[in-house]
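Reminder to self: tokens first, then the designed residues, so the page reads top to bottom the way the pipeline ran.
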């Protein structure tokens, strides 16, 4: 299992890479809402002040969790650029459309 924050961090990195690869390209796509559906297990440590953690369950591990309860969670994320507040754009090469 991995933390939900790690899944979101990876998604952010992938979008940032797509934005960087699109710099200077002719064909651009505005990134709209991103929907992510995951199966999560919720845990809380026994010590005082402990936080609740959401762990994303790998598809093949769901049946092996035993007494851990899982929930399906749908997240809708609205990507925005911190510098402008606008939706980011990713791009492709215009000559790819001609193939």
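Designed residues (99 positions):
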């Amino acid at each position: 299992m991995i933390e939900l924050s790690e899944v979101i961090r990876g998604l952010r990195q992938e979008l940032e890479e797509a934005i960087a690869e699109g710099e200077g390209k002719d064909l651009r796509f505005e990134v709209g809402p991103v929907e992510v559906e995951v199966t999560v297990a919720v845990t809380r440590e026994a010590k005082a002040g402990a936080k609740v953690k959401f762990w994303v369950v790998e598809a093949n591990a769901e049946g092996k969790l035993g007494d851990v309860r899982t929930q399906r969670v749908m997240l809708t994320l609205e990507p925005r650029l911190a510098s402008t507040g606008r939706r980011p754009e990713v791009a492709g090469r215009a000559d790819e459309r001609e193939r």
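Residues 2-98 form one domain.
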